[in-house]
Design a protein that fits this description.
The chain is mostly beta strands and 511 residues long. It has three domains: 284 residues, Neuraminidase (6 Propeller); 98 residues, Immunoglobulin-like (Sandwich); 98 residues, Immunoglobulin-like, CATH 2.60.40. It has two helices and 37 strands. Strands 30, 31, 32, 33, 34, 35, 36 and 37 form an eight-stranded antiparallel β-sheet that branches. The radius of gyration is 25 Å and the shape is globular. The model has no long low-confidence stretch (mean pLDDT 94).
């Protein structure tokens, strides 16, 4: 939440607009709003023509049901010269809600909407309406398949997270999405979660998920998009919108966050749907409505660890290269005494290694940090630098750890088929590789849970699989099971160099 910056002042400050007293006066040229339509959701990207393209949904403000007319919303294409707007609607795409758009590896564009998607060769259309295919692969789908969010991986395949926090993969972005998790990856706290957004940088995957009832959101990070680490603090909450001249607008609720990304994938701007009152109080032809707003973000700096050996508690010093960028000079802009480097769990709380010397590397800067207190261990997949500029502004950046493998096989099993017959137990199981690289021969163990203990059933090996290849594995069955009996089965895949991958579920033994 500390990353949110003041919004740019543009156009007149006016109170000649809709809204509760808490959001008036305001600069209405930020984002997208007008008096005829209520706008909701949507994400923007920089197009090849140098303009910013926003696909957002809307419904008429004078609709009989007010805000609750959202199921009849339509998706529109809006364009702006600047990332923060004002956006101008150019074209109606078609019916739909909660849009998020992305570009496939083959150049085509996809606009996801609730219960479907539009696809086109060009941002100008024509757009064709289609439906995704989903395969839950014996896993429960939490909260249904809506409010989907997408991130493209290096090979052009796609990671998707659904409303309930399930993780899915598609080989092309429009081919079948297959679920790989059997429980939500959201924070293990009480909350009514919705509106996840994921994005990928050159370092890692990021997620923000909103607790709509508590009006608070959480931030998570991941190495592979499957296993997520919850960061402390709030991702956002009401009170984050202010302008450069000090004007504050206190929107009642912020939802449908999306991020604008740069060439490194870094989030440079947050896009929100905001409303000035409780949704049920936004009625037809009243003074309330919703709009699309854009809030700039502090951008993380580009860092590289120069150490060749693995960093641990006994490391004497850590060398980090900080890249110069347009608008950022590491030689003059840093408050060196404020900098801390190491495991995010350390630097987030003011701990970590301190800077002890610097050296120039042309326009870049190399900082040598003390090794003491870095906190980096085998649970970390990034290191973080945190501090401030000489002006007192927030400064931060993540870097990969040179010894960590970031693109690994992602093996995922379906529940086994167990048939107990006169000749003993037959055990078959489908396994698929959702990673971007080939897997190796991988051991697998099958058991069932009885009184809190794992009872061994069978074992075997999964052959090497190329990305997205799947195979039916015949396993040895070492423990007879009772036909017609239901078991709480536990599958454990054990790829070399990775933690065991577990799947549990109820199956009934056939005859």
């Amino acid at each position: 939440m500390d990353r949110f910056l003041p919004m740019r002042v543009q156009g007149p400050l006016t109170d000649a607009t809709w809204g509760a007293a808490e959001v008036v006066p305001r600069y209405i040229e930020n984002g997208l709003e007008d008096n005829e339509w209520s706008y909701w959701g949507g994400n923007a990207r920089l197009g090849k023509n140098g303009k910013y393209h926003l696909f957002v949904c809307r419904w008429r403000e004078d609709a009989e049901k007010g805000h609750m007319a959202w199921p009849q919303s339509e998706v529109v294409h809006a364009v702006a010269e600047h990332s923060f707007g004002p956006y101008e609607v150019k074209k109606t795409i078609g019916p739909g809600h909660n849009p998020e758009w992305f570009q496939l590896m083959d150049g085509r564009y996809v606009i996801y909407v609730f219960k479907g998607y539009f696809i086109a060769e060009s941002l100008e259309g024509p757009w064709t309406s289609k439906n995704f295919n989903f395969d839950n692969r014996d896993r429960k789908i939490n909260d249904g398949l809506s409010n989907l969010t997408f991130a493209r991986r290096e090979d052009g395949s796609y990671l998707m997270v659904c409303l309930g926090g399930g993780v899915w993969f598609s080989q092309t972005g429009i081919s079948t999405y297959s679920q790989v998790t059997d429980k939500s990856v959201y924070p293990p706290v009480e909350g009514r979660f919705e509106d996840p957004v994921i994005w990928k940088t050159n370092i890692q995957y990021h997620m923000i998920v909103n607790d709509w009832y508590g009006r608070i959101a959480y931030y998570l990070r991941s190495k592979n998009g499957v296993n997520w680490k919850v960061e402390p603090g709030e991702a956002y909450q009401p009170g984050i919108a202010r302008y450069e001249d000090g004007t504050v607008v206190d929107w009642f609720k912020y939802e449908r966050i999306k991020v604008l990304q740069d060439n490194f994938g870094r989030a440079t701007q947050a896009h929100f749907a905001v409303i000035d009152t409780i949704k049920w109080d936004d009625l037809s032809n009243d003074n309330h409505s919703s709009k699309h707003i854009c809030i700039p973000l502090t951008v993380g700096r580009l860092l590289t660890i120069l150490n060749k050996d693995k960093i641990n508690a006994s490391t004497k010093s850590i060398k980090v290269r900080i890249e110069a960028e347009e608008g950022f000079n590491p030689h003059t802009d840093l408050d060196l005494g404020s900098l801390r480097f190491g495991a995010p769990e350390e630097v987030n709380f003011g701990r970590g290694s301190k800077a002890k010397k610097t050296e120039k590397a042309e326009h870049d800067l190399i900082i040598t940090f003390e090794g003491a207190g870095n906190g980096i261990d085998d649970e970390n997949f990034t290191a973080k630098m945190l501090g401030k500029t000489h002006k007192g502004d927030l400064l931060f950046g993540y870097t990969r750890l040179p010894w960590v493998n970031y693109i690994e096989p992602i093996l995922s099993a379906r529940l086994p088929e167990i048939i107990q017959g006169n000749d003993g137990c037959q055990l078959k199981m489908e396994v698929q590789n959702f990673g971007q690289v080939h897997s190796e021969l991988t051991p697998v163990e099958i058991g069932y849970v009885l009184n809190g203990q794992i009872v061994h059933v069978g074992s075997g090996n999964v052959p090497a699989l190329r990305p997205f290849q799947k195979v039916m594995v015949d396993l040895t069955c070492d423990n007879d099971l009772n036909p017609g009996t239901e078991y709480n089965i536990r599958v454990s895949l054990e790829p070399r160099g990775q933690k065991p991958i577990l799947l549990t579920g109820q199956i009934r033994v056939g005859e």
